[in-house]
Amino acid sequence: xxxxxxxxxxxxxxxxxxxxxxxxxxxxxxxxxxxxxxxxxxxxxxxxxxxxxxxxxxxxxxxxxxxxxxxxxxxxxxxxxxxxxxxxxxxxxxxxxxxxxxxxxxxxxxxxxxxxxxxxxxxxxxxxxxxxxxxxxxxxxxxxxxxxxxxxxxxxxxxxxxxxxxxxxxxxxxxxxxxxxxxxxxxxxxxxxxxxxxxxxxxxxxxxxxxxxxxxxxxxxxxxxxxxxxxxxxxxxxxxxxxxxxxxxxxxxxxxxxxxxxxxxxxxxxxxxxxxxxxxxxxxxxxxxxxxxxxxxxxxxxxxxxxxxxxxxxxxxxxxxxxxxxxxxxxxxxxxxxxxxxxxxxxxxxxxxxxxxxxxxxxxxxxxxxxxxxxxxxxxxxxxxxxxxxxxxxxxxxxxxxxxxxxxxxxxxxxxxxxxxxxxxxxxxxxxxxx
Length: 435
What we know:
Low-confidence stretches: 1-9, 404-423
Number of domains: 2
Number of helices: 20
Number of strands: 2
Strand order of the largest sheet: 1-2
Order of helices and strands: HHHHHHHHHHHHHHHHHHHEHE
Helix content: 55-70%
Largest sheet: 2 strands, antiparallel
Oligomer: single chain
Distance between the termini: 57 Å
Radius of gyration: 26 Å
Strand content: under 5%
Mean pLDDT: 83
């Protein structure tokens, strides 16, 4: 093999990184978290560790090469090696201590050593980067972690983590850690929702009731009830099953016709309803029109669903679409939620794509105050509830506790705009169980 100077240089960097990764993998498994934090601080902050000269030399090789990109990658991967192992061993509390290392005042000092000065400059850049903001997400929901000073978007961090666990360029440890934490947050919301809906209406003292996991006040009960009622326009699971059965053997063009009927809905404002449906129809009809005569395939269904999700959420330019603004601000946000859920029910593999789009929405609107984003927050809360009911592992059951027939209002609102009906907690109980 012909070894060029660039290849030799690249191999040297990779070997140096490998030694650092192996060191921290071994340390996090053998040493206490406090000892590991000392090793991390000595290497990346002080750049001086007499007990581990080989590892210091490995970092020195990266600094000597003046390879800023590889330094950031090495630093991130080491952080996520620790976070992953502490998560699995139930020692997540030390993640905050890891973040605090980057607040050490020595990072902002100007040493005489050129290499150490380079290291400090890079650390300052890292602390100001999106990579560090992503790292800080792992301190959310730690016991005793205050959230009063956090941006409201951090309440929906399970979506923001999608940027990390779906990005193939991220270190494997980062993708694993992000996926673990996102799933933990989703599971916690599902559990809190199940406990909240199950306990409301019982005879226990109000102070013993679990807290509401959303910002929807008690309307969350009305919403859950509407989704559970068999005749409700929001009960879309069986619709999805029927639609998927009926499209077998259809051409792509006929599939589109059926899809438009499947996602069709009516709203109180006829003009808005027509505008939304016309825009969806026109865009959908132009999509891959050269495939109209071909049999519809799983791949075409997936691409079509992703296209529609993009059309009703946020564009590739990270701007909310016109349809998103219409559905969010001129109708009940539940209309937008149910459109997304209907599309998700076509193929569960769509979910990471949907989560990325919601993450982009959160990122766009989180520059504004919570008071200006109430409709966006309500939309995300409603989406979380819908996903917990329709795409989660928990089965919700609505049971009337009084021996009367269901009234029209609770049988399901067939009126336009899918308005949330009144809900008497004295008459109904919501039971939940693992599917």
